[in-house]
Structure formats: structure tokens, C-alpha cells
């Protein structure tokens, strides 16, 4: 075959892909949430180099805004290049060394993910048990510490799979520190949406994702570590198993030196900066109050429809409302109906609660009264289609 014929064949084989036209959904599931127009605009601004002086200034601003949102003065507060699972793995994979013991919860899907990551890091995992849909009991946590003497304790502040908010966080951190253990908090569904005070509650490490209460596209995920945790990271006997997420190497990029480690997701950092600016403009405590008020209206409306919340009132998570599927109702058919007829996204349950609950987010830019009215009207229609 001649060169000209080969070229013609290649051109004929080119995929015929049209213009990008995703549907315009209202996102009321467990994440991502609707993105604020200002964040989308920020993401579309021109790129600069990841070591450009202007980008270094932006990095400083993002770190300061993250400290405000986490309620911390931790110097080591960064966005990890990746989704929330990357910041989760950075936290666990750097703090857990081979031979360490990590205590993890059993009361939701993401405690199971903590377990998997700790095991992959070479740690031994022990568990503190609680049923799905209930928080950890400090008495059980103390008993687990007395029995196993773990080096690291992980808990999920806002369990996305069950709609449960963990209360008594300072009590849990006190128990851990009395046993010389480090504390890792999963704040993926709480940061920027419900009260979280990293310094006041004495949390050593907290990680999150940008696509939930911060209403930012995934790709640059918040992480904060205090000096105690960073001393453990920098004093490891073995290097972490991940080069990319090795915080001792990332310190060179996000610390004072700003030396090359990897090419940061520049547009995602732009987006996160704008999302965090919105947090600061609203005020973090006002933002917590807004989420609680708007989600409270959602909760009341769901109960008016005859639906039951999965979590008791004292453990209710405003940013993620887990709703029991009534007997005789096909949960998947309701989800499909909302998507097809209303361009509205909610989600089914995960793990032990698959098929038993719907998960309805009320996060960030999605936590608006008009969205609550929309989801309630659409749910009423979808349930009516099945005779509820």
C-alpha cells in the first residue's frame, strides 16, 4: 500500500464524534453537586505553567483559603492532585507504615475503604464496630484502643453511604491521643457543609473532596496535616508505597521551595480557588447554617411525603439525606424516572444499604430552596407512578 493510500485509509477510520453536549442535570445525589457559574468560569481561564510565579501566588491563596475552610492553622494544608480518594490515600498511605496498626470503623462503606488502603500500605487493621446507620460509640472506641493499642485511628465524620454525622468528635480524638495514636478524619461530605473544626477538635489529619459541599469539579482534593502528623510522615523508616502521593516529596512542591514534583491540574486549582472564595465570602458558619436550613426543609418535605429518614434526628447529616425506600417501591425505577423525566439525579444505597435507601444530597450550590422544591415535586410524581 502506498503512503498516500495508507493516509487515506487512516482518515477514513477516524472516529466520527460530534460536539460535546452532556445533559443539563440538577445534581442532588451524593456528589458531584451543581457547580457555581463562577467556578466554571474560573476553570476556563488561560493556563500558566505550574511553576509560573503567578501560579505560585495562586497556590498560596488556595492554601490560605483551605485553612479557613478546615478551621485550622496547619502549615501543611494542600490540594492533592486527584479526586477525594487520592487525598484519602495520601493521608492513610503516608501515616500508616508496615507494622503499624490502624483502627477503622465498620459503620459504613468508607470505613471499609479505609481498611483496604491501610492494608495496602502494609498496616495491620483492627475494627471498632457499629451498625450501618449509627455513629461510633466512644465507649466502643476506648475499648478497642485498650485491646489493640493502634497507632492510627480513622473515622468518617460524614458517612456518605448512611447519612450519619459522627457526633462527639473531640471525645474520640481525646481517646486516641491518650493512647498516643494519630487521628485521620474523612471529611469528604462535611467540609464546607457542616460544622468541622480541625484544630479545636484536635484532628491530626483531615481529607476531603471538592465535588460535594464545595461544589467544585473533582481533580484537586483538600488535605490538612498538623505538625505531629507531618513529623510521622517525615520520620518514616520506609518510603510510602506511592511515589505520586508521597507527602515528603510533595512538601517540596507545596512547601517553601516550590520545586518540581509533578504538573499540577492547573484548571482544577483555579476552580478550587474560586469555590473556596465563595466559602469565604459567605462565611463558613453562615454556610453551615445555610446547609442545615435548606436540608431541614428537604427533610420536612420528605417526611410530608410519608418517607422515613435512615438516620435518627440526632445523627442526621444535612449534606447527605439517606431516605428509606418504602415497601413495595422499586428504588431503581424512581431513580430512572427522575433522570429521564426531570433531568434530576439522586442515588441508590451502597454496600449493606443497597436497594434500601435513596441518597439525596443537599450540598454547596445545590443546597438551594428551588432545588429542594424541585426534588420533592419530582419524587412525589415518581412515587405516584408506583401507587405510593
UniProtKB/TrEMBL annotation:
InterPro entries: Aminotrans_V_dom (IPR000192), PyrdxlP-dep_Trfase (IPR015424), PyrdxlP-dep_Trfase_major (IPR015421), PyrdxlP-dep_Trfase_small (IPR015422), SP_NH2Trfase/AEP_transaminase (IPR024169). SUPFAM superfamilies: PLP-dependent transferases. One of its GO terms (molecular function) is L-serine-pyruvate transaminase activity. Pfam families: Aminotran_5. Residues 49-349 form the Aminotransferase class V domain. Its cofactor is pyridoxal 5'-phosphate. Residues 1-32 are annotated as: Disordered. Its EC number is 2.6.1.44. GO terms for biological process: glycine biosynthetic process, by transamination of glyoxylate. This is Aminotransferase class V. It comes from Halorubrum lacusprofundi (strain ATCC 49239 / DSM 5036 / JCM 8891 / ACAM 34).
